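Because showing beats explaining, we think one record worth quoting, sequence and backbone structure tokens together, and here it is:
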Amino acid sequence: MLCIGNTGRETMDKRTDRRGDTLREPRIRPDRQQQWDALTPEEKERHLKKIRTMNVIKYLVVALQIAAIFYYSKVAMDMKDKRQRQAELDYERMQAEGITQAQLDEMKLEQFQFSLYDPLDNPDAPVGSEHRDAGRDYEIDLGRGVTLEMVWIPPGYFDMGSTQSSDEQPVHRVQLDGFWLGRYEVTNAQYRRFDYRHHTKKFHSQDFDGDDQPASRISPEEAEGFCAWLSRKTGNTFALPTEAQWEYACRAGSVGDAYWPAGDSVCTSANVADQSIDGAFPGWRMTSQVDCKDGFAGTAPVGSFPPNPWELYDMIGNVDEICADRYDWDFYSRPMASSKNPSGPIEELADRGRVARGGSWAGFPSDWRSASRTQLISDFQLGPFQGFRVCRNATPRKGADEVMSTVKQTGDNETQD
């Protein structure tokens, strides 16, 4: 290969190519001059064009580097502005709820000085029957032999989040008032009392429309519509659970990845993507994620697996459960996340989509944990993966009454007794 420069830089003498563009004759190293002179004019021209092309590429690379620096600087500034605005909104919201500056500073400090606690050392820990006397389980008659069971969840504290995923950090202490939560995921039979037209439809020839199977292919708006209908029917305010309520109830005093004992098989504890799905859905790429069988290729009838310590069924697996909160991957880093009864990020600044919890029959092992968070995709009807369960607060949740006025009235679809 001909080397024409002696320092990596070439000194050019002007010449003109056939298109009229100005090129430059390089100054050749003395020991290479003879090789240069032996080249034909066409070869020299090609060589000079190659030099020009390489120089253009160098300039473009430098320009792209400069543009990247400006771009990421702007992104960093935008994120800083967003965090600052979010902090201001959180502060205004806390002030409106009567939280003092000292309490706000204490919440910020707790984000960095938390420690996993032993429930036995905490008199307010959510473990033990003495707290369950504050409320009672009860049953709602939806008509035509269909009922909905509610379980009392005692007030208490717990450490929310985990270190396994960036959107689950930091782990932070949360305090919650008592509330009621559905013992099971809302079933097709229960949902059809609200909307008789509901039909889950088949998925790759498998049926998901059984009365005892969880209602799926449900949007967050439809789930809130069911809650509003149930509120009108009973005179009590029902809503989707917040993320904090859901994780607190799912853990039921446990501090591990899941509520069942560490040595138990996931296939005997929850309906997950096990070997039962292999070959059950022709043309679908999903395969088993664990080497065992739970006996259900799709959703299982609710209550088919053992409950958690607070008698809640299918908190992990079966269907992803829609929560009231909007998804924001770094919400846990904000002071509002550690407030009492946190209700999620400010909606206008949250990323698109709701939070879903618990994983599903077609999820991945990383989803089958008490702390796992999933952002719902916009096209919720891709498959029968999302469902929900209802929540009723002993103390009305701030803003919960608005659900009654903002959700579209759906009484025309209600099944008549």
Observations:
- Residues 12-71 form one domain.
- Confidence is low (pLDDT under 50) at residues 5-21, 108-133, 398-412.
- The first helix runs from residue 33 to 37.
